């Protein structure tokens, strides 16, 4: 398993559109998932220990962000031929088991991950109401193990600021996680 960190935030970069199947049986586009105050796009997967370490906090954070007009969407772009735990059927069970209140989408072609420049799981992209990138950081100080309960809620604070001001914090710490499992070309 390769561990990577995300690049610096490319402030103002527009969100890339998509049309992907969700674990709930619906198709979702960018317009379907955006909130009135912004959007959090998360690249995650089922098997990654970094995602597992933050899973419960992430679900709670996304629910709380909705009260600020921020919607969330999770996308899995991993190649399931090498990681069967990340296939669409397992994604459906995963979303249900962990109470995802946000759509969990499958990027089978991996075109959406490439359009966003996603590199790892988890990889967070926080957009303002105009769908311009304002955050490319981490959830909190978690790594392969959850951070302490009193850890600073970096993602939540950044997205709340985006909802209120339209701009993200200038200081952002990169997310760390497993590399996206790209298909052989």
Shape: globular
CATH topology: Glutaredoxin
Mind telling me the CATH class? Alpha Beta
What is the helix/strand order?
Answer: EEEHEHEHEHEEEHE
Rg estimate, integer Å: 15 Å
Number of domains: 1
CATH architecture: 3-Layer(aba) Sandwich
- Strands ordered across the widest β-sheet: 6-5-4-8-9
The number of strands is 10
Indicate the structural class: alpha+beta
Query: If helices are DSSP runs of H or I spanning 4 or more residues, what is the number of helices?
Result: 5
End-to-end distance: 20 Å
- CATH fourth-tier homologous superfamily: Glutaredoxin
- Can you give the mean pLDDT? 96
Q: Into which percent range does the helicity of residues fall?
A: 25-40%
Describe this structure in words.
This protein has 185 residues and is an alpha+beta fold. It has a single domain, classed as Glutaredoxin. It has five helices and ten strands, in the order E-E-E-H-E-H-E-H-E-H-E-E-E-H-E. A five-stranded mixed sheet has the order 6-5-4-8-9. A three-stranded antiparallel sheet has the order 1-10-7, covered by helices on one side. Strand 4, helix 2 and strand 5 form a beta-alpha-beta unit. It starts with a strand and ends in a 6-residue tail after the last strand. The mean pLDDT is 96.
What distinguishing features does this structure have?
Glutaredoxin; three-stranded antiparallel beta sheet; 10 strands; 185 residues; 22% strand; single chain; alpha+beta; globular; 5 helices; five-stranded mixed beta sheet
Element layout with pairings:
Blueprint: E1 3-5, E2 19-21, E3 27-29, H1 30-33, E4 38-43, H2 49-66, E5 70-76, H3 88-97, E6 104-106, H4 111-116, E7 120-121, E8 123-128, E9 133-135, H5 154-165, E10 176-179
Parallel strand pairs: 4-5, 5-6
Antiparallel strand pairs: 1-10, 2-3, 4-8, 7-10, 8-9
Protein name: Thioredoxin family protein
Domain Thioredoxin: 9-161
Pfam families: AhpC-TSA
């Amino acid at each position: 398993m390769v561990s990577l960190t995300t690049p610096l935030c490319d402030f103002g970069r527009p969100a890339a559109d998509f049309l992907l199947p969700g674990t709930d049986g619906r198709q979702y586009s960018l317009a379907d998932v955006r909130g009135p105050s912004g959007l959090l796009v998360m690249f995650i997967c089922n098997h990654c220990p970094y995602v597992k370490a933050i899973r419960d906090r992430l679900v709670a954070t996304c629910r709380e962000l909705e009260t600020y007009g921020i919607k969330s969407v999770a996308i899995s772009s991993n190649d399931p031929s090498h990681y069967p735990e990340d296939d669409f059927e397992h994604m459906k069970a995963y979303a249900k088991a962990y109470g995802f209140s946000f759509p969990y989408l499958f990027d089978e072609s991996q075109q959406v991950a490439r359009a966003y420049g996603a590199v790892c799981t988890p990889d967070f992209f926080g957009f303002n109401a105009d769908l311009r990138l304002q955050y490319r950081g981490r959830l909190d100080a978690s790594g392969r193990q959850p951070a302490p309960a009193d850890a600073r809620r970096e993602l939540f604070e950044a997205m709340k600021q985006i909802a209120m001001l339209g701009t993200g914090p200038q200081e952002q710490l990169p997310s760390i996680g497993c590399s996206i499992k790209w298909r052989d070309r």
